[in-house]
Write a structure and sequence with these properties.
about 400 residues, alpha/beta, 5-stranded parallel sheet, 12 strands, globular
Length: about 400
């Protein structure tokens, strides 16, 4: 028998799970060790973390009330604590809880530490839309939890979500060696070009399916929530700083890929180097921007990036005054590659992958002139269905995850 004060939480849980189906699951669904005591799933807003939790519940519980999903921004927590909920669940034999939006709950990391230390039979799966919060927790959770990061839909996942093609991810080495055969197998089933264009404009965020017409405005709202809500939940920032973050994002959007002259950029924002870099790295962790440097990023030591990109092509379609095709290609390649591979800014070419594969990204007339005679160099070519040699179709890199 559920106490009356918990009824609102259960009602919200039941409403949400009633809308869930199991036909399509995100790429990390079967990678997660769901038996770990505390699991964190990090990722950008809108990429499907809540759906992931509810699908796992639906697939694994005949009686969904054997567990409980709650969002920690629920009004219930205005008069109750997370420990109140944990204590009730423990006394009633509920040993697994799914906690959404943990960054909206003050002191969440200390509460999770106490759950881990004091309730050894309790398992927690939690999500946050802000990567910043999980990395900047006041209590070190690294020894207690298993962490995963969820990115937006790959091109491969988009095709599966659209019920057009179901295929396993293709490893990078297999793309490099067997891209002709892989591409020919795929184009037997679909017409790639128009579907790829659709993906670039709206296919990165699963919520496009709810209302495609409203997708641009909803994506802009999502970005605003990241800045206006998630960032203040992590850092003590002023209203003026939030406005500067928005201005920074719009300045970069007008010039992507942006090769920053920091002094000029900070002058436009009326800020200093330290504050400016904090803003840049905040947007990078939130997956709104991607900062590219010659060396792997270290968030403990904020250094000037060599190049700044938007986080994915969909953002370009809602933030940029015009969509430059060349920039869009590079943003797509980077957004797909960074999920599983170390990506750096090279002296020659566009991207150095895992320290050994050099890539130039371009249209069908792109040549090797800029990376001639460099071992392990490749062209990622747009506007082509099947490549040859070291010329690989750009869209095929959308099948990495």
């Amino acid at each position: 028998m559920k106490p009356i004060e918990l009824q609102a939480l259960y009602d919200n849980y039941h409403r949400k799970i009633a809308k869930i189906n199991l036909r399509f699951k995100r790429y990390i669904f079967n990678q997660i060790n769901w038996n770990a005591r505390i699991i964190s799933i990090k990722g950008a807003r809108g990429v499907g973390k809540t759906t992931l939790l509810l699908q796992h519940i639906l697939e694994n519980y005949d009686d969904i009330d054997q567990t409980l999903y709650v969002s920690l921004d629920d009004l219930w927590f205005a008069t109750h604590t997370l420990m109140d909920l944990i204590d009730w669940a423990d006394r009633h034999g509920i040993s697994r809880l799914y906690l959404d939006e943990v960054h909206r709950y003050e002191g969440w990391s200390l509460s999770l530490k106490n759950i881990y230390d004091n309730y050894p039979s309790m398992n927690i799966v939690y999500t946050s839309s802000s990567l910043l919060v999980l990395d900047n927790a006041s209590v070190d959770m690294s020894r207690r939890q298993t962490s995963y990061t969820l990115y937006g839909l790959s091109f491969r996942e988009y095709l599966e979500l659209e019920n057009l093609l179901r295929i396993e991810p293709i490893q990078l080495d297999d793309i490099l060696k067997y891209h002709v055969a892989k591409a020919m197998e795929i184009i037997k089933s679909i017409k790639v070009a128009p579907l790829f264009e659709n993906y670039l404009s709206h296919g990165y965020y699963p919520f496009y399916q709810e209302t495609l017409e409203d997708f641009p405005s909803r994506l802009r709202e999502t970005i605003s929530v990241v800045i206006d809500s998630d960032l203040p939940a992590v850092e003590k920032v002023t209203f003026e700083t939030l406005n500067k973050v928005k201005r920074l994002l719009m300045i970069i959007s007008e010039h992507v890929p942006f090769e920053p002259k920091m002094s000029e950029l900070w002058k436009q924002l009326s800020t200093d180097n330290e504050s400016g870099l904090k803003m840049l790295y905040a947007l990078d962790k939130a997956q709104v921007l991607t900062l590219l440097s010659a060396k792997t990023k270290n968030y403990k030591f904020l250094t000037k990036p060599d190049k700044i990109y938007l986080g994915n092509p969909n953002l370009m379609h809602v933030l940029c005054p015009t969509v430059d095709k060349g920039n869009e290609r590079e943003i797509f390649f980077l957004s797909q590659m960074r999920v599983l591979h170390n990506t750096c800014y090279p002296k020659q070419g566009d991207f150095l992958i895992d320290g050994k594969h050099l890539f130039e990204v371009g249209g069908k007339n792109k040549t090797f002139d800029q990376i001639a005679n460099i071992p392990n160099s490749y062209l990622a070519i747009d506007d082509t269905e099947v490549g040859y040699g070291n010329r690989i179709p750009l869209w095929l890199f959308g099948f990495l995850y």
